[in-house]
Amino acid sequence: MIRPIIFGAAMLISTHTAASDTLDERDSSRYELGLKTMESVAGDDAAQTVNSLEKLSPDLARFVVEFAYGDLIASDALDLKTRELATVAALAGMGNAYPELTFHVNGALNVGASSEEIVETILLTAVYTGFPTSLNAVSTARGVFAERGIEVQVASSEQEGSRRDRGMKALERISGASGEEVVSGLEDIAPALGDFIIDFSYGDVLSRPGLDDRTRELATIAMLTAVGTATPQLKVHVNAALNVGVTQAEVVEVIIQMTGYAGFPAAINAISAAREVFADRAEESVATETREE
Question: Is residue 237 within 8 Å of 217, Cβ to Cβ?
Answer without folding.
Answer: yes
